[in-house]
Each structure stands twice: as C-alpha cells, then as structure tokens.
C-alpha cells in the first residue's frame, strides 16, 4: 500500500531560524495525531504539507505527487486551519456552498452539499446567519465541515476542537474516526493530548524541528528503555504485594501511596512482572481494587521525550 | 470546615429577551468546582453575575458572605479572576503589571511588588518577568493571567479555560499549578472548561449547565459508584481463551482494546484472575468501570433536552 | 527557623480599601506618559511660554532695561499679564499638544488590548477607572498651566518685592487652568474612548478642534456675521472665559457668564458620554 504522505529529508529554514530539519516520514491511511511543543516545527510541517511553503531541501509528496505548486492536488485534500478564515458578511450556508462550487459542484449540488455538511456539524439552524455572528465553537465546526465538504482523501485539521464544547467534541471525534474508517486519512494537530488519544493511537511527535517519535503510542512507550514502566496496584494489602516484589531484580523502584492504599512499581520487564503478580494474587486470594499503568499514555510519552523546562 | 462560598436563589437574567439564566439556585461550598456546559448554556453569564458585572433581573444571592443587592464591587477584592480572552495592559513588564493589579486590589505598593515577584516565580515566568508583557507567547500570557489572579491571594478563584492556547507541556504544568494551589490551603475555585480531562484532573465537584439552568451536579470521583459490577480489564495474550472461561458474561471491547465485563452478582471479581491464569493470559489492567465525565455530561444534556 | 518549601504560598497581609480607589491608575498612568518617546522634548518646549514670561518679569524688574517701557507696563498689570499668559502666549496650543500626547491612547490602548477586563476584575467601578484616567491628563495639563502660573506669581513677588496681586486675580489664576484642563482632558478621553486605534483618535480629536475653529470663523465672520458664533471655537471660548476671570476686554459680543457655563457643560457632557461608552465595554 502506498503511503498517503511521504516526506524525505524535508528541511525548511527561515534565515537563521530552523523550521524543520531532515524530516523523513511515511504516513498510511488512518488517523494520525500530530503533536509537539510550541515552536517545534509543527506549523512549518503543516505549511509544507499543504503547499504554503517550499522546502529548502528534501521533498514532500501527497498521493505520490509533489505538494508545492500543485493546485490540482487539493481536490483530494481538505485543510482546516487554526486561524479563522472566512469572508465578512457571508452566511454559513453561503460560505460552504461557495467552497463546494470552487471544487466544481454545480449550483444545486453545492447547496445540497452545504446543507448536508451543516447538518452533520449541527449548524443547520444558523445556516443563514453571518459567520461573524457565530460563537467560536460554531466557527470551528464550520471550518471542520468546510474541510471535508468535497469528500477529500486526505484531511489535515489544525486544532479542530479549540473552543468546541464537550458535546460537539465527542461528535466531531466520532465524525473523524468514521471518516477515517472509510479508507481516508486524517492528520490532526493538537495540543490537547487527551483529544488525540480519543481519536487515534498513531502519533507523530515533532520537537526542535525533528521527528522524535512516530507510530503507535503503546509501541513508542515500549521503546523508551530509559523510562521503565509504571504499574500501580491498589489494594488493602498493598504492602504485602510490595514485600513480594522487593527481591525481584526487574523491579527498579517501589513507591507507596498510603492515602490511596496504592503501591506503584517501576519495572523493566512487564511480562515477568505481570506473570508474577497474577500468580501472587490468585495464590493468596487477594482482593484487588485496581491495576493500572499510569504512564502508558500520550502525556507520559510526551513528557519523557520532550521533557519539561 | 465547609462554608458556603456562593449562594444563589432563583436567579434570572435576560439578554435582549433571551433567557441566559433561567431560575438558577445553587450553593457552592469550599472546594474546587467545575463548570461545564455547551456553548450558550450560560456559564459566562453566571460568572459575570458572580463577579458583579451583571445584575440579575430576579432572585437573590450571597457571594463570599456579601449580599448581591449591596453591590459586589468590594467582593472582587477577594476574588481572583482569570478571563479566557487575551487581556493585558500594554507597555508594562510583567512585574509592574502584576504589582499594579495587586495595588488595585488593595495591597500596599511595596507588598504588591514583593508578592508580584513571588507569584511570577510560582507560575514559571521568573526569567521573563522584566520583559514587556505584550511580547509574551500565548502560553506565557496564560501564566501571567494566573499570576494576576493570584497576586492578592484571594479566597475564591474563577478560571475560564485556564489551559487555552497552551502546548502539551504548558497544559500539564498549568493543571499541576492549579492542583498545587488547592492542595496548599484555603483556595476555592470555579473552573470553566470545555476540556473534560482538565476538569477531571482538578475538580472535585462539577456543575453542568444547559439552556441557562443547572441540569446536574456531580462529584467527579463519585462516578465509580454508579456501576460497580462492570469492570474494565486489559488482557495480554489470547483474549478468546480468557473469554471462553467466562460463559454467560456479557463482554464488549472498547476503543482502547480493553474488555468491559458485566459480572453477575454471584460472580466474585477476583475469579477473573483465576480464569486468566488458567487461560494462560495476563491481566494487565483492572478497574471498576467508571462512568466518565463525558458520559455524565452527555446524559445530563440529553435529559435536559428531553425536558 | 522554619523552612520555606516550594509550592504556592498565601499572603499574610490584609487587603484594605483605598480612600481613592483610582489612585494607582493615575500614578501608573502618569509614569507611563513620562516614559513615552520624546517626552522630555515635549515638556521642554511646553515650558517655553512660561520661560518667556519669566524672563519678561525679570526684565521688568531691572531698572537698566526700563527702556522697554511697554513691557514693564503690561507686566505690572497683573490681570492683563496672566490673561496674556493663559490665552496669547501659545500656552493654549501647548496644552492642546499635551492633551493629545498624554490622553489620546489612555482609553484607546485599553480598548485595543482588552485591559478594561483586567481593571474591572479588581474592586473598581467604571467611574473609578474614568477618574483615574482623567487625573493623568489633568496632572500634566495643570503641571504646565497652573504650576507655571503660580511660579510666575512667586517670581513677580521676588522681583518686584511687593505683594501686589489682588485676591480676585489670584482666584482667576486658580480657576482658569482648572477649567481649561478639565475641558481638554474630558474631550481627549472621550475621543480616546471612540476607537482602539490611537491614530484614528488623534486624527478625530485634532480634526474636531480644527473643524470647530474653522466653523466658528466662517459662521461668525461670513454667514451670520455675529461674533457669538465664535463660541463654537474652543480657543475663542477660552479667551472669553479668561476675559471674565481677569476682567479684560472680551472679543465676542456675548455675556461673559456664557463662557464658564459652556466649558463646564461641555466637560460634563464629554465625561458622561465617555462613562457610557466605558459601561458598554464587555467584560
């Protein structure tokens, strides 16, 4: 299967300032989360991917075609930018119909597409109101629907859920997952990591102009050798369990939380640890309240790779 | 000791004939409250009423012991407000701006300056505190807004979208600051946010609003109490072999690949471990299934629509 | 000795209401004006009318320079002296420039950067905000009108050796700068509240004065041929006020009490309108 987005030694700098440096990437269909600190190169990468910037070195292709100066490509690509981009005085319905026409639909078809798109994001009641009168959340929803209006193969969304209330966050998340399940590709850039986790397990982490990690979150976590896995066990007999693991050389640290009756282990071999834990629980008839992996999530991966200032 | 921080009875407020607040009565005690709701639910209007910027058409209330009718200008001395929108005073560096705000809240000048430094250190702006605030990045501006709300050590803080515009590292730090402030003493907070994960991390209780009314009040940690016979289980190994040993037990796989098992009342949960051992799989995740805040929100809003 | 740990610490002091809640606004505002570009240059040139008159007082007291008889005469007539100082020394223009410099961005910058939301999150009323800003402009205007006038009084005392100033003149010396400053400050704040774009504010404010003067000239000189229409001109109205206060000959055929009434009314109207505009700002 051919990758949807392919970058090879992609580099962009602005004078002295580094945008991205030697990025190589192959993204397959599905949903990919794009994350990174501010100034990491995310915006530069997105601009390169949407043809707004020309690379200084290397290249980036979408559907096998070069991106820059290739307007025909954008029939198959939809983009939802972070900033507001609409014309003053235009109503939501008119705006979408206009975009549909730009993509080649007839006047009637454009109106239908616009109406359908507005319905999908819950804006059909305000279709005739000026976009400038919409709340921030409503404008976000409009932008998202504008990006998928022409049923593109690839959609790039930059902070699509900013200002959107929890109800519509969930619905748009479902919309995105649904869209991707039909063989499309979605790139979502966001600072809110729980949002990304709700949409996908595949991420691209950019920092200091480079890709630090790419792929499945759990797999990436597994590769972080310098950060042993944290496992938290909550049970009234938490100290008994700790006793059992004290002599185990695969357990690197043991931390107690008296208030919550928890013990948190760090181990470099999960297989070994869980094998022993499961047996110990059964053999001793223990009552376990909770077993979790507190650092097996995207925020932990981010913290470990990017670190905090 | 739990005291009533805010008490509202039968509050009504209209904007141009539109009922922004429709018969709201509530009692907010000490602690951290989350304020949730769809856009246009009335959250912002409610906050403005608490701050004394809007006068309700009907109803009464007490904010920090002061009756609303007498005017709430003085009460703002004891409130720290962190607005959602970008706001600062141009031409001032962070220290000057922070101490200025402290002075306006009633701090003597020298105290305000000292405290401004302290608070800017606390929010992580120590290295840029002499720079002009208009040169700050959006993450720094958020921290500055927090500093402005903290400088006079208020009794109640109202935070509107505190992590807006911050990158993942900044968000995490902001949430930790909020948790720390609460842990250290007597701060009460009302946090309004669209990001449920933030509310779950910082708030003990949640008020859900819709159409100008409070449609639900919950404890965030209480959600677990709702469904204790359902468990989330994460299996390493062939889950088929595991499930074979659980005949008649309803099981679903959720988005994260975890199993949700609905156990009958006569089935002790610990049996699951025995079954896992027999099946040659490892249980790596085990937790009573909790209704997430998202579920509770959707239910509350859905119910309020039906009414 | 107890250890101070990391994390949030409260503040042990107590927050007290101020007698004048707007006072910090004025202090900070005054400082900010002082730190603007070319402030010193402006202040230097603003002192010229005062310096000129100061030199005149000195010259008049020196017998060897008595040949400048004209000067001596006008200097010894206190009313006329101060009337000229306030209305024909270029001081009016200086005050106008100062009002633009100090006041044009006071409210408009706050509109642009959404500062009013910050101010009102404090225990301040919108009136406090307005008074605080007004005091900033008044400070500078009085600094270059009232203070120099009082210094000239002292100079006259020192150089002539006798206390010759009448009480009514002294009163006029206090009232005129106050009314003039109030009017200018109110107007510039009103214009400042019209737009977040300070350049637009300056154009509007300057344009208003220019237009008013022009209109007064045309209407009083050409169209209606009545000097009363000169009241449209701020400059002429102030001269009329000065004539009332200092007892000199008025230029317009209008009762003298009209001038202070007009000045006070315009000021109050401007302040009220500004307050209404401030009330409309969303916080």
Verbal overview:
The complex is a heterotrimer of chains A (309), B (307) and C (283). Chain A has 309 residues and is of the alpha/beta class. Chain A folds into three domains: 1-76 and 152-223, Rossmann fold (3-Layer(aba) Sandwich); 84-146, no CATH class; 225-306, Alpha-Beta Plaits (2-Layer Sandwich). Chain A contains ten helices and 14 strands. Chain A has helices at 42-49, 92-102, 107-120, 136-148, 166-181, 193-199, 217-223, 238-246, 270-283, 298-306; strands at 5-14, 17-27, 30-35, 57-62, 65-66, 77-80, 154-158, 185-189, 202-207, 210-216, 229-234, 251-257, 262-267, 290-292. Chain B has 307 residues and is α/β, with parallel strands linked by helices. Chain B has two domains: 4-223, Rossmann fold (3-Layer(aba) Sandwich), CATH 3.40.50; 228-288, Alpha-Beta Plaits (2-Layer Sandwich). In chain B, the strands form three sheets. A six-stranded mixed β-sheet of chain B has the order 6-7-8-3-9-10, sandwiched between helices. A four-stranded antiparallel β-sheet of chain B has the order 2-1-4-5, covered by helices on one side. In chain B, strands 12-13-11-14 form a four-stranded antiparallel β-sheet. The mean pLDDT of chain B is 90. By secondary structure, chain C is an all-alpha fold. Chain C has one domain (38-46, 77-149, 163-279). The longest helix of chain C is centred in the middle third of the chain and has 26 residues, at 167-192. The radius of gyration of chain C is 22 Å and the shape is globular. The relative contact order of chain C is 0.12. The mean pLDDT of chain C is 89. Chains in contact: A-B, B-C. Chain A binds chain B through residues 35-38, 135-138, 162-170, 191-195, 198, 270-271, 274-275, 278-279, 281-282, 285-293, 299, 302-303, 306, 308-309, and chain B through 36-41, 124, 137-139, 163-164, 166-173, 194-197, 236, 255, 270, 273-274, 276-277, 282-288, 294, 297-298, 301.
